[in-house]
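Suppose you are handed only these lines of text.
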Amino acid sequence: MKKVKKESTIYVFDDLQELPKDVAYLMEKAIEARSRAYAPYSNFEVGAALLLDNDEIITGNNQENASYPSGLCAERTAIYYAGSQYPEAKVIRMAISASSKITSTETPIPPCGACRQAMVEYEIKQTHAIEVYFMGSKGAVAKSNSVVNLLPFVFDKTALF
Ligand code: THU
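From them, the structure of the protein bound to tetrahydrodeoxyuridine can be written out as follows.
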């Protein structure tokens, strides 16, 4: 037996003001998108904004459904839209903001596992790391230099062929 260890590092900014201007702008777009979330069941609203290498900004938010599993997270709504509209474009970075009408969300809230899996597909496809910034409703903003950093021991196409 041998031990296989992978380390993940994130960087935490105190608040939006500490971010580089262009990143803060992208996060503002995520926050705007969050305000349009359709989350009547969880009351947990998430917004995501993607910057593409063609300078387009794509946003998305969570879309819930009375049949709960039929809903979709903000990150996947946004990245699938980007993939469907601009299949050749690379994703430079993604900003995510979450808030709840029920509980406090003032610490960075990372994307769920299913979204990380969806996001890493595009990172591998484009062979270029996607920066991921995530926050709650206010306060600190966390940065990961890549998606795979958030998803060590990733499942990817190398398992299939
Ligand atoms: N949600 C997201 O939009 N992104 C995540 O990464 C985690 C969860 C949504 C799904 C559901 O609408 C609500 O938040 C509560 O789980």
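What can we learn from it? The mean pLDDT is 98. The beta strands are 11-13, 44-52, 57-61, 91-100, 131-135, 141-144.
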